[in-house]
Design brief:
Blueprint: H1 22-32, H2 34-54, E1 60-68, E2 75-85, E3 92-101, H3 110-113, E4 121-131, H4 140-207, H5 212-244, H6 271-275, H7 283-289, H8 291-311, E5 317-327, E6 338-347, H9 353-420, H10 426-461
Antiparallel strand pairs: 1-2, 2-3, 3-4, 4-5, 5-6
Helix pairs in contact: 1-4, 2-4, 4-5, 4-8, 4-10, 8-9, 9-10
Amino acid sequence: MSMMIFPLLTLVSFPLLAAISPEVVKESALKHHPSVQAAIERLNAGEFAVDGARGAFDAKIVSDYKRQTKHDHNTTLSRTQLEKPLRFANSKIYAGAEQISNPKGFLAPIYHTGNPTTQTGNYTLLGVKLSLWKNLTTDPDRAALQSAKYNAKIASAEKKLTDWEITRLSQIAYWEWVTAKQIHKIYEKLLQNGVTRNDFLVARSKKGDIANIIVTENEQYVANRKGGLQAAMERLLRAEYALALFYRDAEGTPIFPGAEEPFEDYPEDLTGFLARLDLDSDVERLKIKRPDLANLSLNVAKLDVDLELAKQDLRPRLDVTSEYFKRTVDHRPQMPLDYLMVMAQVSVPIERNLGQGNIAAARARKTAAEKELQLRHQTYGFEVTALRRSLQLRLEQVAQRRIEYTKAKELVEAEIMKFQTGGGNLFLVNLREETQANAEASFHEARLTFMNTLLNYQALVRTE
């Protein structure tokens, strides 16, 4: 292919990593392909999200200050406490200090202060709060943490699946490029044969040995072959672009393969690939280890968390708070040194639209995910079985195309011999040559189809 096109390309032409082979392309793609790097970042994001969800249970300092006034009846209340949320019963424990100032000595009403203490003084306190009904089994913070853990597992499996998919796609791109090079070479040679023959026929026509119409006929074949070569060139160019997406230098920049770059061709005998392939593994055992199926199961589990959280909306709220107070300064004899306060908060849903709507939506999402998992299990089994059967058929097609090519080549050699000795005709020579070229191209296409089927199967049954 002419290099005059290449200055228009954005791809670089740095020295290549090594002689191009499927393994070299795969390793390059696994190190530098943006999809792999994106999968790594998604994996990191999933792990960081788990840390963030755990942060809902971080200890924190909470402080508030209140002042109520009415003429001379002033009350000031301040409280500072260290809180530690716990991962059960929507509970938390806390400890701190409280100060109440009431110069006139009046009691501070609970409904004004929002706190259980009502007597002037300084206190230390210990408290615990928990839910006994709604949010007893789960709550938004615990549900978010569990979902984040599921998402992290899903991201980890997706990283593995991305590596496998990039391996498959990079090698498919490699073999497409090899096939495109071979086919380009076939039609380049076919055109050259036509051009060389045309020069020979023109010379004979000038001598009067053949009619000029023979030259015209051959020129028609040459024009047709130029069209075939242009199509092959266009395919090769697309294949080079596709390969460059996976074949990268140390900086991750796509490398455009050179026209004369050495490369690993198809092996002469493709049966060795099948000999190294696992064609007997039990499909049910494969399903257990497949990360894509595991991710669908994790998605169902994650939606089950959402459903359980939605069910909380129909449950009455019964929260209990218990606080122990102890004075830290002198107090009047009639006032106790310490005391225990217990509070209960009750909330009963009267209308049920919120809970029923959220539950129905969560249940529908979970059912949809379960159906998707069921379908994927069925589809996976069918795909494995179909590809196992296809592999042998594809290999047989390669053998058949090889026979067709060999026979077409023999016919060309015989027809050229006849033509050179005056016993053949130009029409049959050109016809035989084009049949041979098409048969050789079909042979390469059959090998490519076999390799694509092989790579698809390897990716499908891979578990580690």
